[in-house]
Design brief:
With 89 residues, this protein is mainly alpha-helical. The relative contact order is 0.18. The N and C termini lie far apart (36 Å). The longest helix has 21 residues. Helix 2 crosses helix 5. The chain has one domain.
Length: 89
C-alpha cells in the first residue's frame, strides 16, 4: 500500500479529506454508522467523539483499502480544486 498515512497524519492528506467528505455526504453510510456504533453523527447532538469515531471508521475501512490509483486521483482532484480556488479567490 503506497501513500496511506496513519490517522494522525491523514488529516493533512487531501486524499483522506476528500474521502472523508465523500463518506459523510453518503446519507446511508452515515446512517448505518450511527446505527452500528450508537453515534449521533446525523443529529444536532453529535459530539466531537462521534466525529472522531467516524473519521477513524473512514480511515480504517475506506481510505486504507483504496487502490493506489484512487488515492492519487483523490489527491489530484483535491489539489486541482485548491488551485482553482486560489486563482479565483
Amino acid at each position: 500500500m503506497c501513500g496511506r498515512l496513519p490517522l494522525s497524519a491523514a488529516y493533512f492528506d487531501p486524499a483522506f479529506i476528500n474521502c472523508l467528505s465523500s463518506a459523510i455526504a453518503e446519507p446511508e453510510l452515515a446512517e448505518q454508522f450511527c446505527r452500528i456504533y450508537g453515534s449521533k453523527l446525523n443529529t444536532s447532538q453529535r459530539s466531537e467523539d462521534d466525529m472522531r469515531a467516524f473519521s477513524k471508521f473512514v480511515h480504517d475501512s475506506i481510505y486504507t483499502c483504496l487502490p493506489d490509483e484512487a488515492i492519487h486521483s483523490l489527491r489530484a482532484n483535491a489539489l486541482a480544486g485548491e488551485a482553482g480556488e486560489v486563482s479565483h479567490g
